[in-house]
Design brief:
Four copies of one chain form a homotetramer. Chain A is an alpha/beta fold and 419 residues long. Chain A has one domain (39-340): Divalent-metal-dependent TIM barrel enzymes (TIM Barrel, Alpha-Beta Barrel). In chain A, 48% of the residues lie in helices and 10% in strands. Chain A has helices spanning 3-24, 28-37, 66-80, 98-107, 140-160, 181-197, 224-234, 253-262, 288-304, 326-346, 349-357, 361-373, 377-386, 393-399, 402-410; strands at residues 42-43, 51-52, 55-56, 85-87, 111-112, 115-116, 164-167, 172-173, 204-208, 218-219, 238-243, 266-271, 314-317. A six-stranded parallel beta sheet of chain A has the order 6-7-9-11-12-13. In chain A, strands 1-4-5 form a three-stranded parallel beta sheet, covered by helices on one side. Chain A has a two-stranded antiparallel sheet with strand order 2-3. In chain A, strand 6 (115-116), helix 5 and strand 7 (164-167) form a beta-alpha-beta unit. In chain A, helix 2 crosses helix 13 (377-386). Chain A starts with a helix and ends in a 9-residue tail after the last helix. The interface between A and D is large, with 57 and 57 residues.
Chain lengths: 419, 419, 419, 419
């Protein structure tokens, strides 16, 4: 089945909805253009079934190699026209032939977003173990191994045309006394400085933070304050990366985002949703209003600094798919992001600023809620339609029986690398 | 300015929005009828400026007595046609002439919802102190005083035509060792049994629970499990009352609601919103999707038991208004409740049930999100319009300069009783 | 090296400490007797290195089969004389020859504590998948498979001389809409009822609850209130099991324990410690005072009901050992439990009760703190010494190079079954 | 009754305990000297009964003016010899005659610790309201009023001999949209810069942070990361102040402390304890091990920088006394601090460092637990005894019927200024 054909059956209802919403705002075209430009990177490890320490229940048809991962993302992008980037994970995705991989990605309209290093697991044949950390480790040889790995990742990224490195360290401790916090910080900083030196001039490095897990007492890059300390000491190419699930309960993430933007140190995002911890659920499935408030700060803060929404921050999904088809889940996540971005673009900024100046809390709340309560599904669908995508990506995915085809082609028992 | 006059200026836009949404569902009339029937009680203590232990910043024009409180709610109800009930607090609102008060309320179309007792504060002239609890107290005389007070509250309620009593106990402890938990439970149970005996046959008693505050180590009715234990031991007229802000971080309130409905022991609700604790913020201002999920369970669970949405549970707002005009805040809260109720009514229950039967998690999520993403503002506005209310209650309140008039009439320094 | 020999070098210092503390209380002998009687079961899955979804860093010398697991626990028990029980997990520990296993355990002075079923993972060759739950499942055949498995576990337990079954269900949902909460509860209840029927008369079934993980939106036995509902509907042989890590942030676990005891429905404990979630850290390593407060309620509540501390509740460790030698960790956990139990026995209950009666919060706190601040290490060591154990189990374990021997015997790459 | 007389009856038991513990360490004298030097400031507002937004239950005999507050602290200091400092709050404690107040304090051996400003409440007659914040306010005149107030506080402090200013701002917002986070930060920074300019050369300013309350959506100095940002931009006289109750659930405060020390930006402490939020409970009453871990970092980190434990950080209690006699509660709090400090001094730092170097997590935990499990009450008592204080301050306070005397002298209905 062709996308166009599937669209046809949906067109009348879409047109009704679009006409209504387009008639209610004079910014329709501007918003459609911004939506079209906005691309969310898909992490290579999110294409397979995820799991927990208690178990994993794989589906089937998972990509067996990097080429198939790119094909999967190519399909997502063909449907939603908003997934034109991939974020690779080394060593899970070392390209045997970078030129071929670049060509394949280009065919699918996909660019290479941030590269991800892995010093939180031991790989078969690895000389030294990360059991007690990597860059923080008391053993210099292990720190060096972790530094070398990150530099290796940069090299792979250069070959593929990426221009950023995300460093997520699980380093930390499980018990009081295990770590000298200060020394762990200093070791980590020194390691990051070595990695920073290996960055090409046009590259950025993102220092990701996380409150807890897999270490359950302390984490050495544990919150935005720590990440910002590292990024500040590293230099202008270093930024903080915000993963929505990496906070303590009740944290005001949107305020963190606003302050990082203010400091010129926000680098990018890992989108997901959560109720308890780093649950890695589908974006927007638990706290959609929080996501809206974050986008509201992003739009306001990036505009205030003259930043390009689509290019000046790294946007990436980082979720785990334990009970859903990973591709369907990713379609839902991207949809949630685009809807929320559209709502944030609809916020009446002048009215909001005026309300803030008058301490008119009621009106300030109304302005945000008016945008959030607006049904923008037709705007996002129209942007997709104009770009050649599907009016209903999930509907198409089901109607075209994509998963069944993938299982037929790749088998039922395939296991994609990743979590 | 008349409401009708104000509506006129908004009518064209409303009609456009309503026509669109009415065209998208075949349940419009059914939903409008349910919305019209749904009334949210306003607590008498929410009409004045709230505060925290750090301070209070009163506005002005607050109601100086019960009559003025009823007038305020009358105004809200005139505007939104959804606030036709008042929940009184004794001793703050003891009516000097119940018959007159009843007549005044009737004039405004307001009935008397649950009565609230107060054994968490000492009143001037009170014989014995509640410093160390009321129904849980080690001193029998103090327990009796609290029992007597609750029975007194029932009597006031009977005179006014109420038919339920809400018992919120702040009883608990601030330090380990302070309390024998078992004894505190038994004392509280015995007290509630005495109060239960004084309930008229057609009355209900709601046992409210709260995780913490004002006691900071333990609370003697601390969670739904404890409340249900009490309610079960008391008998068929006793129910659990759920206040949205009275839970530990990350609690799944919608599941609690579903289980209480299953047990036939859900009595009613205190609506508010919160980010950290019992913040008592405007309903729907922080976690609107959680509110939707709760209403989704309410609609499903009440329908499954053949319950009447409008009559078989107690619906009440319980919020504090520290930085907003209390009346404006209440209008926002009621609006959020009505919108969420409308969205819950829109859920495609057949499709949801089918998805659940197939473990089609993706579709189940879609069904809920489709309803939540629908812009139902015009439905709620239409229900108000048909009932003679305002298309935009908040807009009218501002345009008619209601607060200025109240200040002029009542003064700037008035202080309503309550928190 | 013999234990006695190792003890000799520690005897002088021990005697000094013991003499001092024994001189300060007239209950020394009574406490020593209670300590000697108190045995903590070791779960069979805790003898290997644990891990997280991000990775696992095995040590070496892990037990390769049930026989070796019993040997490991035998060693622990020989050292601390307080680990004379094992809690098995089916299917990880199905005994090929129950009689031999019983004899081996008896040799080591070990009895069989609660049996644990597993319906949270799919085993190789399993007919139907637990991906979407087990007892809660919409598919009757899957529910039946889970019921049958539990009955099978009971049979294994009977053969070994166990007399209780712990049912931990990971059943729940990851996304709003996935589950009909009410139906999930009913299915689960029906399944438990079938299992209950298969219980021998002298058996108990423990219904364990958990707030979240591996499901991240709802859990079908999610808190003590739900567990108590199930246990109440099941009958007198059903009890609630409390795992310290299975609560929402800030929960008052000691109050829950007191109320469950009051209701006669507390069945047993899974000990561990945590800072963030179900971190499964060494008992007493993060919040030792909370553990003390729990034991304080246990001692008080069990005494009030005339219960036998050692026999009338199930005591078990449930921790994961990601960065420590599992046997060393277990020695630390048992030590923490024994110390805390000793402190709870030291509480001056008359003085506490009098303070509570007087609302003398300061003295009540003092009474608890006096006990907690007392150094009881020599009491616990003396109890071990008298029973023939080691004055310093951890010191002996290191001095005798136990782990090196186990690695030599079993190999470096062994992997114990479990988490 | 004289202190010496009361001590006499306790001396034999004390001597036994002290002899035992003194025999177990060779650092006894060094520790006693450090304990003697360590002084904890009492905040002037903690001498009266606290309360919550729900109510307040005053005791009696509360100090009616600054002179009586100093007398109360003088009494505490006489008993425990560790409370030789007072932290004043302006405007609650404006001295009418600074010279007299200084002389009175000197008589009691009390110095003036950090001064506290108050821009979180409106005072009678105040020109402009802080309802919507102070230094963050959109209105420049209100910001200036707050700046002027802080400069006024510095002036009072200079007159009294204080050398530091604590700025706690409740500034923030209750609802999304209310605040432009960036602008609020900038305004606050500019205000702090003005205040900073007014600081004498030998003064410090402490920027206190708090996660939430009284604002329930955002706080403008909300966490240590934000406080450090302000302190860094202000200059070398600006530091971060850590209040134990001002964090999100599960925060690792000891790691924060270690990092702030590393950055040379830790200024001081507000001690209290809590289970849920900013509960302001007695120090050490809920999580004594966390307090120990914090002191462990303080001792290690201050030693590493060559800092003087007693002088180089500000130590202050900040608690609320809702159900206890405030003076008794303060005695318990100071005792908990001194015991914990003594335990932290007992930590075997060489062994800990060696364990850390070997990733010997088990031993690292043992080292900390050995210190924490040691009964150091006799050490702290001995330090008090040598300094002329009471062996049992709380016992003396009760035996001498201090509260009854204060009520007799000051009356039952007095209300101390403060929370």
């Amino acid at each position: 089945m062709e996308i166009a054909q599937h669209n046809e059956s949906l067109l009348a209802a879409h047109q009704r909805a679009f006409n209504y919403i387009a008639g209610e705002t004079d910014q329709t075209e501007a918003i459609l253009n911004k939506l079209a430009a906005f691309q969310v990177a898909i992490p290579s490890w999110a294409l397979g079934t995820g799991g927990t320490r208690f178990g994993r229940f794989p589906a089937g048809g998972e990509p067996r190699n990097l080429e198939e991962k790119i094909e999967d993302i190519g399909l997502l992008h063909k449907l939603n026209q908003s997934s034109g980037a991939i974020s690779l994970h080394i060593p899970w995705d070392i390209p045997s032939n970078p030129a071929n991989i670049r060509a394949l990605a280009a065919e699918h309209g996909i660019r290479f977003d941030a590269m991800n290093s892995n010093t939180f697991q031991d790989q078969p044949g690895q000389a030294l173990s990360y059991k007690f950390g990597s860059l923080q480790h008391v053993n210099k040889a292990i720190r060096q191994q972790a530094i070398d790995h990150n530099i290796e990742v940069i090299k792979h990224g250069i070959e593929l045309g990426s221009d950023s490195l995300t460093v997520w360290l699980s380093d930390g401790s499980c018990f009081p006394g295990q770590l000298n916090f200060r020394q762990a910080f200093q070791h980590t900083l020194e390691g990051l400085q070595e990695i920073y030196k290996a960055l090409p001039d046009n590259w950025k490095v993102f220092v990701e933070y996380k409150a807890f897990e897999p270490n359950f007492y302390s984490t050495t890059v544990g919150d935005w304050g720590q990440s910002l300390l590292y990024a500040g000491k590293l230099g202008p190419k270093a930024y903080t990366l915000v993963d929505l699930g990496h906070h303590l309960p009740n944290a005001n993430i949107e305020q963190i985002v606003a302050l990082l933007l203010m400091e010129g140190k926000l680098g990018g995002f890992h989108f997901n949703d959560s109720k308890y911890g780093d649950d890695d659920l589908t974006v927007g499935s638990i706290k959609p209003y929080q996501l809206f408030l974050i986008f509201n700060e992003l739009v306001e803060g990036m505009d205030a600094r003259g930043m390009n929404h689509a290019k000046d921050l790294g946007w990436m999904i980082d979720a785990s798919h334990n009970v859903k088809d990973p591709l369907e889940d990713l379609l839902q996540s991207v949809e949630a992001i685009m809807l929320t971005y559209a709502q944030a673009l609809l916020v009446d900024r002048k009215k909001l600023a005026a309300a803030q100046l008058n301490n008119d809390v009621v009106t300030a709340q109304e302005v945000l809620q008016q945008a959030f309560r607006t049904d923008v599904r037709a705007l996002v669908a129209e942007a997709r339609l104009r770009a050649g995508g599907s009016l209903n990506p999930l509907g198409y995915f089901r109607a075209a029986k994509v998963r069944a085809q993938l299982i037929k082609k790749r088998g039922l028992k395939t296991v994609a690398t990743g979590l």
